[in-house]
# Entry
Amino acid sequence: MRNCDVAIVGAGPYGLSLAAHLKAARVNFRIFGTPMGYWRNHMPRGMHLKSEGFASSLYDPGSCFTLQTYCREQGLPYAHMGSPVPLEVFTSYGLEFQRRFVPMLEDKNVKSLRRAEGEFRVELENKESFTAARVVVAVGLTYFQHLPPELAHLPEEFVTHSSRHSALEAFKGREVAVVGGGASALDIAALLHQAGAAVEVIARVSKLRFQDPPENVNPSLLDRLRNPPTGIGPGWKLFLCANMPLLFRLMPEHFRLEKVRKILGPAPCWFTKQQVDGNVALDLGTTIREVSIEGGRVRLQLTDNVGATKTVTTDHVIAATGFKPDLGRLSFLTSDIVSAIRCVDKTPILSSNFESTFQNLFFIGVTAANTFGPLLRFAVGARFAAPRLAKHLKRTAPRDLARDGSASTSRTTSEREVRETVAQ
Ligand SMILES: Cc1cc2nc3c(=O)[nH]c(=O)nc-3n(C[C@H](O)[C@H](O)[C@H](O)COP(=O)(O)OP(=O)(O)OC[C@H]3O[C@@H](n4cnc5c(N)ncnc54)[C@H](O)[C@@H]3O)c2cc1C
# Structure
């Protein structure tokens, strides 16, 4: 048993960026999770990121090791804007970030977290347990996949959520219906077609609204003033969300919830359009009325906007129906912790330092979006969250656990040390 001050649960862009900052600040911590696990195991291979190159980094103190730096080192193509980042490049960059800045990562899942004598007792999946004074939850979308009720009861052999798939080769020669009209649905539909499946998209929307390509990848000062580019998209509304998450937090609750729900809906990307057009059958403006399994196939009864019905029979249904953050679904949290956390719309109400109403329990990433805004739904939000939370954890570290044994207590990592790490 090794006790620690801070335990980070999750090793995606948020957990890793926070760890890099805590390491530099000499805070005593441990971090758990599969590095870039969600991106490697729950997104379809061949996908491209929706975020632009300049908004697709992890963050070390000083932001030295960016995606751009990595691509330059590896001789890979890179552009700030207008050149979609392949998933495989982003994940290999994230793994390299982990290797250089967070080598102490423990690739194990946290199985349970419970309160014990004023601290947290953390149990890992290998049965190891230890205590931590503070815990940061950075598990992204892992627990939040949403299946509509009409599909939820069917066996996985016939219906799966889009997040269950990274390799799509197994669908070669099969018929697949993809349910959903957003980015995940259209991405996976295009990639299934490339993998040799016959694909049909079923969506309630009557028209697919693809995002526009960036108008100008080298905007002039005047263009920037008219339509400022930000890490979460262009325009003044998004500029405010991207740059003022602390102000967003002070807005009335109904305003915040509405903005998080509406801003940056799940529009598919401009570059997916050409992959889908003519390659994928579209059933738009339709609602699924009934689903059954007949003769080893899935039978979907659809109704369109004017009441006409249609039946689609297929080998498999992939529900690209999104995610619903819900604290109650974080199965590693005991029920007494969950019930002690004050929530809004099933996500924790957070202090300006990401602390929930359960003292010393912090949340970053998508579960913090209802507090800080849509920025926190994207990797680029780690640029705000990681330094801010690291500073707070450093300032409030309990005296007896404040130090990483190997480190001096007051010094923070110098710029030179960060540069040496980047150069490794
Ligand atoms: C299809 C799709 C495409 C997307 N495209 C983009 C994009 O282009 N740009 C963008 O910015 N965002 C995109 N997103 C959103 C993306 O999920 C977030 O931006 C990003 O992953 C947030 O990082 P994170 O660290 O919070 O979570 P994640 O990257 O999801 O990482 C979660 C981590 O938690 C770990 N974990 C989970 N449970 C446990 C446990 N019990 N114990 C220990 N570890 C655990 C996982 O192994 C993983 O390491 C996309 C999402 C989807 C679904």
